[in-house]
C-alpha cells in the first residue's frame, strides 16, 4: 500500500482512496486536490508521478492517467495581468504542465494556494 507524506493534503477522502488504489507500494502520496473545470476531476501527486482523473481521455473515455515526472518538460501558471505571485502564493488557480510529445495539460484548482502547493511538489521532482 502507498505511504502518506506527513504533511499530505487531501481535499476529498474518496479521491485519496482512488489514488491509493493505483499507487505502487513504495510510492509516497503528497497531495490529492479536487479540481474545477470540465476535463479533470482531481489530481494526485506522489514522489513518482502525477495522477489525474481525466473525463475526456482520448476524447472518448474517462480514465485515471499517470504522468511520470520524467515526462514533464514545463510547468506554468496563468498570468491574469499582473504579478503571478502575491505573498508567497500564486494568484492564479490554473496550473499548466507540459508533457514531452503531448499537448499541455491544464489543471484548475480550487484556489491559488492549492495551485502553488501543487507547483512546488511537482517542481521538487522535476528538478531532482
TrEMBL record:
Domain YokE-like PH stretches: 26-78
InterPro entries, per the entry: PHb_sf, YokE-like_PH
Pfam families registered for this protein in UniProt: bPH_3
SUPFAM superfamilies membership: PH domain-like (SSF50729)
Gene3D superfamilies named in the record: Bacterial Pleckstrin homology domain
Name assigned to this protein: YokE-like PH domain-containing protein
Organism listed in the record: bioreactor metagenome
Amino acid at each position: 500500500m502507498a505511504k502518506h507524506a506527513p504533511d499530505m493534503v487531501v481535499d476529498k477522502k474518496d479521491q485519496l482512496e482512488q489514488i491509493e488504489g493505483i499507487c505502487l507500494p513504495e510510492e509516497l502520496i503528497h497531495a490529492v486536490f479536487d479540481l474545477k473545470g470540465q476535463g479533470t476531476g482531481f489530481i494526485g501527486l506522489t514522489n513518482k508521478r502525477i495522477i489525474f482523473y481525466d473525463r475526456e481521455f482520448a476524447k472518448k473515455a474517462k480514465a485515471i492517467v499517470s504522468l511520470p515526472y520524467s515526462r514533464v518538460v514545463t510547468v506554468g501558471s496563468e498570468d491574469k495581468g499582473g504579478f503571478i505571485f502575491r505573498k508567497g502564493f500564486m494568484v492564479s488557480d490554473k496550473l499548466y504542465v507540459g508533457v514531452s510529445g503531448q499537448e499541455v495539460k491544464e489543471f484548475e484548482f480550487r484556489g491559488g494556494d492549492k495551485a502553488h502547493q501543487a507547483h512546488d511538489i511537482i517542481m521538487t521532482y522535476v528538478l531532482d
